[in-house]
Amino acid sequence: MKVAAIDIGTNSMRLLMTEYVDGKFFDRQKYINTTRIGQDVDKEGFISKEAINRNINALDEFVNTARNKNCKFIFAMGTSALRDSKNKSEFLEKAYSKTGVNVEIISGYDEANLGFLGVLQGIEEEGDILVIDIGGGSTEFIVGNKEEGIKFSKSENVGALRMTEKFLKSDPVDDCEFKKLEEYVKTTINNTLDNIKNFNIKKAVGIGGTITSLSAISQCLEVYSMDKIHNSLLSNQEIENILQNLKKLSVEKKKNIKGLQPKRADIITAGAGILNIIIKELKFEDMTISEFDNLEGLICQKLKIMS
To answer: Treating both helix axes as pointing N-terminal to C-terminal, what angle do 160-167 and 268-281 enclose, rounded to 10 degrees?
Structure first.
């Protein structure tokens, strides 16, 4: 059976189309569009008219693509920016009117759970793992394993777009501004990291656009490849080196970095900064990157409910 899942994230919208047979994924295809629904939501509290229109058009395009590929079901979810916006109902009504697809706004807790569920589809690890998902508006932390499921889950309002808008006004990045970002992130996630330290974690797994981009940069990928990203390793030293390089470059120069989508150039430094703090504080030497994430998790969850 062919199915599709759409994730309307703070920074980008993503589409997964896949064959789903006996609980397994085949012929996965992913598409991304940097739609920035969360632009200024943190500051203004509202999604702008431009962002609404931009995202509804992108959603319509993805829905049509899925229908043209004969997807039997199309599931859609909205995350951090839609959760936080005061005019989310306007977006949901317009989205349904244009596409006929219901967009479900999920909580930070549910977002974390779906990310974990997705990761489990593409990993063999038996012991406890920590899944880290750095999005545009929030970062999700999930600890658990295949046997017992989720043991700890938390969503924190630190994301690559949100932190860039809040702190990084200079180009290239100003050291004082970056220090303020680091202090804010550390203070915000400190309790969560303390909780995570109580678990005997065998492996850290990273998902989401920031982390997959850092892996692509590390590998100098001319063309993004899910196969090359999935199960790749990113060491704490590589993360630190990439971050220090990003801080020196202007946004225009970042657009030329191999492996980095040009539309992510203005927010990647903040995203790398968030990850660097997490990895250092938790003393991980490296992390595994997963190309199975909350999109796969959404399909698993929805089809299980329907069966």
So the answer is: 110
